[in-house]
Amino acid sequence: MHYVTILVIRTCMVQYLENYKKNIAIDMRKKGMSYSEIENRIHVPKSTLSFWLKKIKLTEDQEKKLNKKKFEALKKGSKKKIARTLQTIKEIKIASAKDIKEITKKELWLMGIMLYWRERFLSGNESDLRKGVKFTSSDPYLIKFFLKWLQNIGRIDKEEIVFDIFINKGQQRVIGETIGYWSDVTDFPEDKFNKIYYLKSKPKRKRGGRKTAGNIRFGLLRIRVKASSMLARQMYGWVRGIIRYYWD
């Protein structure tokens, strides 16, 4: 009998506690609180709350407030997710940058060939490649790299290098700023940039989503090497050697 009495008392206490929590949950729901808010207060699973509160109807004003809270919670969660993603990307970039240590002369040589291949062979005009070395880009880092390649690998003197600027015709008023920009990028004096070509047409989207210089603030810079037919032929041969190695 003693055991049965204890069991009955425990059952009654459990039922009392459950009813107590249920009444509190109902009262909180009637006040317009969300399931998440109620769950955090009385520590009852949402599945149980859903069963208890399915008949409780909220006013239109309460529904609006709950929807606003949900939106704010989603917005806050989205911001946190974006922040975590950006931090992860930043950490990956820092770690990846450390992978690049010393670049050997052979690696520099190959990098320059591949860059020139991508730039010049896309045109499909192989005869143009034999006429001289030309490289065009709006990216200051690629411009810096190719100049370094010309001087260190191609053994081209600075006096042999000339530049052409291609810029939208509507940007004539900022040509002085443009020349100064490319002079700083290349470490060449401003008088080296006296050949300016103005683009009349509006920027057109190229294959792969790229655009022409019309929408680029400082336009495109073309590097040309005087009397460079020999170097151009060498580069043509190097590219053909790479093709033959991998595909022939």
UniProtKB/TrEMBL annotation:
It comes from the Bacteria. This is Uncharacterized protein. The lineage of its organism: Bacteria, Candidatus Yanofskyibacteriota.
